[in-house]
Amino acid sequence: MACALPAAARYDNPPLTRQPPVVILGRMTEKRPDISARQETFQRLREVRDEAVRHMRLAQQFHAERRDLLRALIGEGFSQAEIARELGVTRQAIQKMLAG
User: Fold this and answer.
1) Maximum Cα interatomic distance, the chain, rounded to a whole number of Å
2) Are the C-beta atoms of residues 73 and 80 closer than 8 Å to each other?
3) Residues in the chain with pLDDT values less than 50
4) How far apart are the C-alpha atoms of 91 and 78, rounded to whole Å?
5) What is the DSSP string of 43-93?
6) For the segment 31-51, what is each residue's pLDDT rounded down to a tens digit?
């Protein structure tokens, strides 16, 4: 006996596929916040952003140095497995460090 429902309806899960009702709000009547009253907060945000950028640059420099040190050890004849054992990481971790 064939099912009377269309194929799409048989596989539909209404609680998951139901579209939520759309609520259209008029223009917000509230006054915009006074930016000048929060200048300290905005200044702190700028400082935090600048510090995050500085840390990112340092991390990139450390990554490059670590990669160069690993390559030097491999050039001296150490295997990735030996380096990994000495550092307490997996050989796959060494491969990832070298890939970057």
Assistant:
1) 75
2) no
3) none
4) 12
5) HHHHHHHHHHHHHHHHHHHHHHHHHHHHHHHHHTT--HHHHHHHHTS-HHH
6) 788 888 999 999 999 999 999
